[in-house]
Design goal:
Blueprint (H helix, E strand, L loop, with lengths): L7 H12 L3 H14 L4 E7 L5 E6 L6 H7 L26 H7 L2 E7 L6 E7 L2 E8 L4 E7 L6 H4 L5 H18 L4 E6 L2 E5 L6 H9 L7 E4 L11 E8 L11 E5 L2 E3 L2 H9 L13 E7 L5
Length: 299
């Protein structure tokens, strides 16, 4: 076969596979975009584990029609300008790939209006083919709706788990962000039923209880900055951990954030669990949401 260029449809599907693994990936990308937009309230609605519909609504900065058209282009981003900006990132993302990747494998609709604008705009993309944007009435902020995820990539869709399992992945990720950002009003609705909602008061106790349950009412320990010989220069940690009285049979409620972004890090999980050594039974694990702040250049 001679060397040739792939068509744009194939390129889009391949790129989407690198960014979007499952419905929870879509939710996480859209949630982080809402946080970067300065939202104080975010509502997430999913149906059938996110494969039928995902809708994320925020009251953030919003977009103009021109910005909306750019947002679905590859490598378009508001997070950085030059390569050197990677050492100074204070946002949750920079790739400029999430929206076009989602649009390549779903029916995507974006409705948005900048703060103070008299009207908004709506743009629709059906499996990579865009129409609009067109003017519409819309409140300040952005609503992104994703329907029929992977409908045009049957090989990807058949590898999705049952809707209940995919819902669990989404609820876990959204719950982690709800706990790490207690000053944001964040809600999750699954198949028409409200799963949880935080009040945005900034109280980590209130957010933790709303997401994890009432068993944490008297069993939540806030983390305070370390000082003296055990402090690490340039690194601070905040958040909370459960007392040894509240445990789980798995590690899926151990959440770590670095500069606001949810990460997976075995060494951090091991270090935290070592602090509970001999305090909890073998095979049981604590609950924790730990936010670490460090110079972006050191990440």
């Amino acid at each position: 076969m001679p060397i040739h260029l792939l068509n744009q449809d194939t390129i889009g599907k391949i790129a989407a596979g690198e960014v979007i693994e499952r419905p929870a990936s879509v939710v996480k990308e859209l949630l982080e975009n809402a946080l970067d937009a300065g939202a104080t309230a975010i509502e997430i609605v999913i149906e059938e584990g996110g494969s039928r519909e995902i809708r994320v609504t925020d009251d953030g900065a919003g977009m103009t029609a021109d910005e909306m058209a750019l947002a679905i282009q590859r490598h378009a981003t508001s997070k950085l300008t030059t390569f050197d900006d990677l050492d100074r990132l204070h946002t949750l993302g920079f790739r400029g790939e999430a929206l076009p990747s989602i649009a390549a494998v779903s029916q995507l609709t974006i409705r948005s209006a900048p703060v103070g604008a008299s009207a908004g705009a709506e743009l629709a993309v059906a499996f990579g083919r865009a129409t609009g944007p067109k003017p519409v009435g819309a409140p300040s902020g952005t609503t992104v709706t994703v329907r029929d995820l992977f409908e045009n990539v049957p090989a990807r869709r058949k590898f999705l788990r049952q809707p209940g399992t995919e819902t669990t992945y989404i609820a876990r990720a959204v719950g982690a962000y709800a706990c790490a950002y207690p000053s944001i009003r964040l809600s999750l609705t699954v198949d028409g039923r409200r799963t949880y909602a935080t009040d945005g008061s900034g109280d980590p106790h209130a957010a933790a209880i709303a997401v994890m349950g009432n068993e944490l009412v008297d069993d939540l320990l806030l983390l305070y900055p370390l000082d003296g010989d055990i402090a690490v220069p340039g690194v601070t940690a905040s958040g909370w951990v459960s007392t040894p009285r509240v445990t789980r049979s798995h590690r899926q409620n151990l959440f770590f954030f670095v500069n606001g972004r949810l990460i997976a890090h075995r060494s951090l999980a091991y270090a935290l669990e070592e602090a509970y050594h001999s305090l909890i039974m073998v095979g049981r694990h604590p609950i924790a949401v730990v936010s670490i702040a460090v110079d972006p250049a050191e990440v």
